[in-house]
Amino acid sequence: MFYSDGEMKDFYYTAVMMNTGVDYKVIRELFERKEIKTHRDLYDMASRPESKIRGMEISSRSEKKISDWMGSKGKVEKACEEYMRIGEQNGIKVISTLDQLYPLNFRVQTGMPKVIYCKGHTELLKQCSHQGAIAVVGSRNASSYALYATDSFSREFSRKGITIISGMALGIDRKAHEAALEGTGSTIAILAGGPDNVYPNENKELYRNIAGRGLIVSEMPPGQQPLRQYFPSRNRLIAGLADCTLVMEAGAVSGTLHTASFAAAQGKEVFVLPNNIYFENAEGGLRLLEDGCCVLFSSDNVIDSVSQAILRRRLEFPDLMDSKEQTGITVNSDSKRDKISLIRLKADKTPDEVTDDEWKTLIEDELTVKPLDIDNLCRILGLPFYRISELLICLQMAGRVVLENGKYALTFR
Fold first, then answer.
1. Order of strands across the sheet that contains 93-96
2. Rounded Cα gap, residues 377 and 124, in angstroms
3. Contact at 8 Å (CB) between 36 and 30?
4. What is the pLDDT of residues 266-314, one digit of tens each?
5. Residue 191 main-chain phi, psi, to 5 deg
6. How far apart are CA 8 and CA 83, in angstroms?
7. Structure pTM?
8. 8 A C-beta contact, residue 397 and residue 311
């Protein structure tokens, strides 16, 4: 693997952030003062004459940190080269805010990294936006009850094409990843160290499976060991990439509570699996319920939350969320019922030729009988969850259907 000039500058940006006093406050000030237009401009900034650096209209704090960086440029360049060397050896891809694959959920949140490092199928980052993503987190020493529920829910969501996101820790995280991999969906592991570092060591095989069929993501560069102080930052990324968060089990003091807090601060719903009030390892989750989080009772409300998140993205970012146009034969008939019958016949024999508008017609026809949830529509029409979800979102945006108590109904009956 050979990195492009732009990707090299992404690595250099990380090297500056990891090996000098330059932090996000300095970067923000450089943007505000128009000293740089993108994070990649740090690479060109390093070659500026010292007089131009001193002539920038920035705070004394930023000036001091930039001066220290300029005094250690050799160290930064060496670190950048080492990151790239390890990245090439391990097939690590670098993605920044300047790339189309950069996650939409990260773009709309503050405090997200400008550069992330990935190993595996990077197209899953876009799939999260179009088909939805759920964070599943919890205790490393989880009870059998919590592990069973994690396996059950993760499999169900995975079968619907929703991406399962977790942190590849032992316990709940591991079970969520394994269940997703055994289903038909995908999973993303977000690590506290570089994407080439397996942590904990017991998850070596799981790491290989996720890298092969899913995706490993980190804001840390290749070669970076997972330090304790990096885990809270990792948790904010788990919450940031997902549409909602499921807390399967958490003690009174738990990193899982950080993930839930980040999700709530980002305006996302947090669902908590109810547990025994006398079970010490469930106290954190019960406190979240006391604070107003949603009870994880069934998958219906979670799916509604994901669907609404996709709908909001479609409304706010139509250019980024537009699906590819589908082509198919046109059904010509003066009778609406004859037209629907012909569409059904085509759906049975050649479903790949059915257009989006024709699938919408079939959905509306089903809803004339009674309101239905997504599962029933999937079963009746033989389409996967993500396709039905996309079509329902379009119908919602057009004002044709509404979501009521977990079921879709026509607005005009």
1. 93-96, 115-120, 215-218, 187-190, 163-166, 133-137, 244-247, 270-272, 294-295
2. 25
3. yes
4. 999 999 999 998 898 999 999 999 999 999 999 989 998 998 898 888 8
5. -105, 155
6. 10
7. 0.83
8. yes
